[in-house]
Write a structure and sequence with these properties.
alpha+beta, 150 residues, 5-stranded mixed beta sheet
Length: 150
């Protein structure tokens, strides 16, 4: 889209450079600023994990059994546009359909203690989603789950 702002990473979606800039007090993004920017038309990219958005990928665990694999990717949030999930690897993507309902699913994400799990109910089905705890307010705001933990 011509003239629209380029998407930027959310406060919880940090690269090593972002961490260094935060430590040196050069750049400090906050969840409140993310929500204000989102409301102002800034598209945001939130890193996350899912097993089900865009289809399940099964991996063999032996003896003919298979389980759904947790995939890393990002959720693109832009006011007035449907949210888009894109896998970090493999080129898999999915546009999520309204209406949305986001419910805390409890429990953590193995090997990712700074993430929280949600059950995302959309017009096309129910999915799992894990996002950084720092981005929880933004995701709840964008997907209609309210401002505070449910």
């Amino acid at each position: 889209m011509t003239g629209s702002p380029a998407e930027r990473r959310s406060a919880g979606t940090e690269t090593m450079l972002d961490v260094l800039l935060r430590w040196t007090r050069i750049r400090h993004r906050t969840p409140a600023r993310d929500i204000a920017d989102y409301d102002g038309g800034q598209p945001l990219r939130v890193v996350g994990f899912t097993q089900s958005i865009g289809g399940t990928v099964k991996v063999s665990v032996g003896k003919g059994r298979q389980i759904a694999r947790l995939r890393q990717g990002y959720l693109r949030l832009a006011a007035g546009e449907p949210p888009l999930w894109k896998d970090a690897r493999g080129g898999r993507s999915a546009t999520l359909q309204a209406p949305f309902r986001l419910k805390p699913a409890g429990g953590g994400v193995r090997l990712a203690p700074k993430f929280e799990r949600y059950e995302l109910v959309t017009g096309a089905g129910t999915y799992d989603l894990a996002v950084p705890k720092k981005d929880g307010d933004l995701v709840r705001h964008a997907l209609g789950g309210g401002a505070g933990p449910g």
